[in-house]
Amino acid sequence: MIHPEYRVQGDLSTPELQETLTPVYPTTEGVKQATLRKLTDQALDLLDTCAIEELLPPELSQGMMTLPEALRTLHRPPPTLQLSDLETGQHPAQRRLILEELLAHNLSMFGVTRWCTTFPCPAA
Predict the structure, then answer these.
(1) How many Cβ atoms are within 10 Å of 66's Cβ, its own excluded?
(2) Does the structure show a pLDDT above 70 at 107?
(3) pLDDT one-digit tens code per residue, 9-35
(4) What does the record list as coiled-coil region(s) (predicted)?
(5) Which long-range contacts (CB under 8 A, 24 or more apart) does 52-60 make?
(6) 103 and 55 in contact (C-beta within 8 Å)?
């Protein structure tokens, strides 16, 4: 363990417990975990003030978490969350984001294919 993060606890009779699990993000040189957590906190705070448009059609998203719920769950997981579900990619929050990313990718590929057939390149 290199450079662990810690906090000095003054009064040992009542330790401060976090309400969520602490995620560990992949880092880039010069960017610390604390910085990444602060940035995700800012982004999650924006979810409270800015409405995010649901891009999934209702027939695909029925029974799934909303996008803000999925983002909050993954970036600030509750202590009751099954870590095995996260490790295997089976958590409903992950599945919600996976579906949206796959749909966005397929739609963009459809657009590129359509553009290429509409505007074919001249033969060399």
Answers:
(1) 14
(2) yes
(3) 777 677 677 788 888 888 888 888 889
(4) none
(5) 55/100, 55/103, 55/104, 56/99, 56/100, 56/103, 60/99, 60/103
(6) yes
Cα atoms found within 13 Å of the Cα of residue 79, Cβ hemisphere only: 4
Copy the structure tokens of residue 88.
């295997």
Q: What is the DSSP string of 38-71?
A: HHHHHHHHHHHHSPPPP-S-HHHHTTSPPHHHHH
Q: Three-state DSSP class for 11?
A: coil
- What the block records as the tokens of 35 is 């910085």
Cα–Cα separations (whole angstroms), residue 37 to 27, 41, 54, 80, 90? 11, 6, 25, 20, 24
Cα–Cα dist 97/89, whole Å: 11
Q: What would the pLDDT profile of 51-88 be if each residue is shown by its tens digit?
A: 888 888 889 889 999 999 999 999 999 999 988 999 99
